[in-house]
Amino acid sequence: MSWKAEAHKIYEARVVRDALGRLAERLDLKNLPLSEEELQTLAKRAREAFRSEKKRERLDRYKAHLSTLYGEERVGTISAALEEINNAIGYEEK
């Protein structure tokens, strides 16, 4: 892996952590039905979908999967919050 690719990977991981931190300020993560791993995956895929329509489809499939497990309303609320957070982060990046 080139140094640029590695730096980008580290940056994206930092952005996902930041998004989860901001999500924790909005929602009580302890009371969410999602496991930490599921929440991390959702945040990562939401970040990827922020820039790519193809990744948006992947995110939608994952949200549909989580919705069957935990309910559409709960997953929708979390996903909407992550989308708002990613929009704010994207604005800050500019």
Q: How many angstroms does the end-to-end distance come to?
A: 26 Å
Major sheet characteristics: none
The helix tally amounts to: 4
Poorly predicted spans = none
How much beta, percentage-wise? under 5%
**How much is the radius of gyration in Å?**
13 Å
Helix and strand string, N-terminal first?
A: HHHH
> Could you say which structural class the secondary elements and strand pairing correspond to?
mainly alpha
DSSP summary, beta strand count: 0
Based on CA inertia axes, which overall geometry fits?
A: globular
Helix content: over 70%
Mean pLDDT over the full residue set = 92
Q: Tell me the number of structural domains.
A: 1
